[in-house]
């Protein structure tokens, strides 16, 4: 007999599990279906973010940063450490433990909020009176009926043509996070978030890392001044970054991977590595959803077509996160999930795409919100810019990490903040103040007039705001 629900959520990643919890908080009878399995075959809620993305990568970044500090920087603080070594397998085991804590935490939240969880793959069967029939293929097959359906099936790593992932030598983010030994030579194709973060982890642990990027500009989506500063820091650390390349044949052998490529000058090159990480983007997960059974509209990329409110072409069917348009960011998916749950309950959900922050968790960290300087120029917007280097910040000096700057862009006439771009220590945390400011349409003068505690890194944000009016106090 079919089990009936007000709302069925397909996928328990950031968009899905948050949507399920919010809908339950609003009084709906909610089911959430997810097929991800842990090593023992049990449920592993949290999607790519928790299992093979945001959370595990931050765990490895933290571990590798500790190792880097102990190996190269403790002596500056008067701390003598001899015989520092890294047990990569133990580091990965700690990462796995962190992931499991998050998996279990979501299960607890489902129980707390009375969300019914079904472990298996969900697919559409047919439209029925007042909703949709959903099949769950798992240990025990289930049939669910839902008045409203939220699709939050996420995305998967895009493979390089002719070089499928084997997760042994040609790695996606999943394989890159599971290596238990440090490769002598590591190659990365793509210098996006995943490429830079994984490259940073294994470079710190001793790998010789080469990044091949097809675009002529480094981090083209980032403000050009910030990207230039970041590039300089990464090269200084030892990352070898090749831009404007064309990747040719990739050959996998018993001892490693060989990549034929052409540099920006058109010269033929060859890269031999022990492991190759491919991070050239992600594709929406809609295969197996059986969208055609109900006429759910997909675009040419396989993404679900939605409007500004995340409504699909079908009444009562919604979609959020990586499986729809917009940036593939966990927090974007969460915001859409909350908004859709509230819209189902008759409320007015809110997502402001103009104030979604972006973060790259390298060292230095890179974070930004709003438009870049090159975008403002292209749009013909008159603006004023203010920058402040961490080199002039007392807290950054005390931390021993003075790389980078804060850059603020404000409308030349109204002084409204149009974008803030940060490269440097704790940029991921500093950007939150800027998101709040932009959400409330603050001016640079507003930030300049707010008292910031001393000594803090956040004073650099205040000083960048002062710099918009050319009146910095500490530089």
Kindly summarize this structure in a few lines:
By secondary structure, the chain is an alpha/beta fold. The chain is built from 13 helices and 21 strands.
What does the model show?
It catalyses: N(6)-[(R)-dihydrolipoyl]-L-lysyl-[protein] + NAD(+) = N(6)-[(R)-lipoyl]-L-lysyl-[protein] + NADH + H(+). The chain is of the alpha/beta class and 475 residues long. It folds into 3 domains: 3-156 and 283-351, 3-Layer(bba) Sandwich (FAD/NAD(P)-binding domain); 170-280, FAD/NAD(P)-binding domain (3-Layer(bba) Sandwich); 355-468, Enolase-like, domain 1, CATH 3.30.390.30. 31% of the residues lie in helices and 26% in strands. It has 13 helices and 21 strands. The chain has helices at residues 14-25, 47-52, 54-72, 88-112, 173-176, 193-204, 224-237, 330-344, 373-378, 394-399, 427-439, 444-449, 459-468, and strands spanning 3-10, 30-34, 116-128, 131-138, 142-151, 155-157, 170-171, 185-189, 208-212, 240-242, 246-252, 257-262, 268-273, 275-278, 282-284, 317-319, 358-360, 365-370, 383-389, 405-411, 417-424. The strands form 5 sheets. Strands 1-2-3-4-5 form a 5-stranded mixed barrel. A 5-stranded parallel beta sheet has the order 7-14-8-9-10. It has a 5-stranded antiparallel beta sheet with strand order 17-18-21-20-19, with helices on both faces. β12 (257-262) and β13 form a beta hairpin. It is globular, with a radius of gyration of 24 Å.
């Amino acid at each position: 007999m079919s089990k009936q629900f007000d709302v069925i959520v397909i996928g328990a990643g950031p968009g899905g599990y948050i949507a399920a919890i919010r809908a339950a908080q609003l009084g709906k009878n909610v089911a959430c279906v997810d097929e991800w399995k842990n090593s023992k075959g049990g449920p592993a809620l949290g999607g790519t973010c928790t299992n093979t993305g945001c959370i595990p990568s931050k765990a490895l970044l933290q571990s590798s940063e500790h190792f880097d500090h102990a190996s190269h920087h403790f002596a500056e603080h008067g701390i003598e450490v001899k015989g520092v070594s890294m047990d990569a397998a133990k580091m990965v085991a700690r990462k796995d433990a962190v992931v499991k804590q998050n998996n279990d935490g979501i299960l607890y939240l489902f129980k707390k909020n009375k969300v019914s969880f079904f472990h298996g793959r969900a697919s559409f069967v047919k439209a029925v009176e007042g909703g949709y029939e959903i099949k769950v293929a798992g240990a025990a097959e289930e049939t669910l009926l839902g008045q409203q359906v939220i699709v939050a099936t996420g995305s998967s790593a895009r493979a390089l043509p002719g070089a499928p992932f084997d997760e042994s030598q040609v790695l996606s983010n999943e394989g890159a996070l599971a290596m238990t030994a440090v490769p002598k030579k590591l190659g990365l194709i793509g210098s996006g978030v995943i490429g830079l973060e994984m490259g940073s982890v294994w470079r710190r642990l001793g790998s010789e890392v080469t990044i091949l990027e097809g675009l002529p500009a480094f981090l083209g989506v980032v403000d050009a001044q910030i990207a230039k500063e970041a590039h300089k820091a990464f090269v200084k650390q030892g990352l070898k970054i090749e831009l404007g390349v064309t990747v040719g044949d990739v050959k996998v052998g018993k001892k490693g991977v060989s990549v034929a490529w052409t540099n920006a000058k058109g010269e033929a090159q060859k890269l031999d590595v022990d492991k190759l990480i491919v991070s050239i983007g992600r594709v929406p997960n809609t295969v197996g959803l059986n969208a055609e059974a109900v006429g759910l509209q997909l675009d040419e990329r396989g993404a679900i077509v939605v409007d500004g409110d995340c409504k699909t072409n079908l009444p009562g069917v919604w979609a959020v996160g990586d499986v729809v348009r917009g940036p593939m960011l966990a927090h974007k998916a969460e915001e859409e999930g909350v908004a859709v749950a509230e819209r189902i309950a008759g409320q007015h959900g809110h997502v402001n795409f103009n104030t979604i922050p972006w973060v790259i968790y390298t060292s230095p960290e890179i974070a930004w919100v709003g438009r870049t300087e090159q975008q403002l120029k292209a749009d013909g917007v008159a603006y004023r810019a203010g920058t402040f280097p961490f080199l002039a910040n007392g807290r950054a000096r005390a931390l021993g990490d003075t790389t980078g700057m804060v850059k603020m862009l404000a409308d030349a006439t109204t002084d409204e903040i149009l974008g803030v771009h940060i490269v440097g220590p704790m940029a991921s945390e500093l950007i939150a103040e800027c998101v709040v400011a932009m959400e409330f349409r603050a001016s640079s003068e507003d930030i300049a007039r707010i008292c910031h505690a001393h000594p803090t890194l956040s004073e650099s944000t205040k000083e960048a705001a002062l710099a918009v009016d050319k009146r910095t106090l500490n530089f």
